[in-house]
Design goal:
The complex is a heterodimer of chains A (286) and B (266). With 286 residues, chain A is of the alpha/beta class. Chain A has two domains: 245 residues, Rossmann fold, CATH 3.40.50; 39 residues, no CATH class. Chain A contains eleven helices and ten strands. In chain A, the strands form two sheets. A six-stranded mixed beta sheet of chain A has the order 6-7-8-3-9-10. In chain A, strands 2-1-4-5 form a four-stranded antiparallel beta sheet, with no helix packed on it. In chain A, strand 9 and strand 10 form a beta hairpin. The radius of gyration of chain A is 21 Å and the shape is globular. With 266 residues, chain B is mainly alpha-helical. Helix content of chain B is 70%, strand content 3%. A two-stranded antiparallel ribbon of chain B has the order 1-2. In chain B, strand 1 and strand 2 form a beta hairpin. The chains are: A alpha/beta (286), B mainly alpha (266).
Chain lengths: 286, 266
Amino acid sequence: MPISFEHVSYIYSKGTPYEYKALDDVCLDIEEGKMTAVIGQTGSGKSTLVQHLNALLLPETGTVKVLDRTITASEKPKRLKSLRGDVGLVFQFPEYQLFEETVLKDVAFGPKNFGASEEEAKKRALNALKLVGLGEEYCERSPLELSGGQKRRIAIAGILAMNPKVLVLDEPTAGLDPKGTESMMKLFHELNRGHGKTILIVTHDMEQVFRYCDRVIVMEDGKVRVHTDTETFFRNPAACQEMHILPPALIRMKELLKENGFEVPDDILSIDALADCIARQVKKHG
Amino acid sequence: MGNITLGRYIPLDSPIHKMDPRAKIMAMLLVLIAIFFPAGWTGYAIIFAAAALTIIIGKLSFTFIWKAMKPMLFMLAFLFVINAFLLKTGDPLFTVGSFTLYSDAVFQTLYIAVRLLLMVMITTCLTATTKPLDMTLGIEDLLKPFQKIHVPAHEIAMLISIALRFIPDLIDETQRIIKAQESRGVDLQEGKLTDRIMAILSLIVPLFVSAFQRAEDLANAMEARGYAPGEKRTRYKVLKMEGRDYILLAGAVLLLAGMVWLAYFR
């Protein structure tokens, strides 16, 4: 198991009137090589959870194990740096972290911090920019003058250039247009399938979870409410509703069809298969 | 950064919290002036007692005051060293080599320390018990008479309230950017000088970019809702002086008068 949480709790502003328990005795194993979605309502502890993965936050109690490293409350900051190279964390609205004069320099900033030579960092930056779909013509432009979507890509390239084994994304598509969202999700899918990266993605979009993710973690009041594979998770739409989660359109469509007397097998998970299935039944009844 | 106590509002429920901000600001100014009269140790003891009483009624803790005082200690130590070398009056206390410490150096520093402590106590009584927005309402009202001599009272109050309103946001933003850059391997604690400069740049540039962005958004949002500084405006919250506010003011005036008497007429 590359990532596991053992009885992890985290409290914000401990010992003040603002004290707030964000994680409460979380036990969790995250599989290597999978794409896992973390969902849950605002304030359920999603962001706090993912910030433990590269030790930006240290657990108040309990231990986090990430790639053979064990993180506890008494961790020394020195040992954490190399971990941050292995677990790339992309924050919400990462475009706000851009600061260099040129796109290339900004993307190369991460690898240089982790000890890559100038040449090596540049090579990795070019590679990462290609991955996110930005050509060499952007390299010498100022990141601050580009559009929001392009800035986001550059910021993500900045993390990819560190070549992390685990990629953690906190709402990476928030505020992007549908086309931008689609190509962003395809990129993450490709990084997972093609490059074998373990991906953890915090999201509110159930269509994304349904289409791209293998596993689902539902957080609620600082606890893990559900941890299962996507298919099983959406097989029970009633349970989703109970957790205030609106299932994806296809699942809702299937429910409606079932209510109206159609026979819809559980293993139909694409719109085409569903259309075929309905067509057959309609024909049969003539 | 969560440990900054000087000037922070503590949401509690006490008679001091409920007082009119105008009364509190006026009382604070009067007592601050009172501190600067050379009324001797008796005077300071009286002011200390008054401030301590306010703190107790305001349900504030003395550890909170002490925390607010802490950053001043370094300054006081520095002052003491300078006084020790420069003030050569009073009785010699002891001699080490060619250096002699005189009693005036000690008393002067102590005097300033006490004044500073009293000032921190009094200002904390105001800031910890008054919501930033109430404070600006109070400031605006108190500046109103000066509008006759073209002091832009409303604009000043609006400036202050916007600045205060954005402090927590900017602190959050800074922490967010620190975390984002730490995730990219920035090390703020150690490293070579060039690396450290780079690390600080990686914080400051994004912080400025987002601060300017926020300022522009806010300006547009205000204009879109028809905000114009000179216009006559009504208020949602209307300040009203009550009995306890007059008692506070009377107390402050009495304190000031007492200090003047102790200093010059005794």
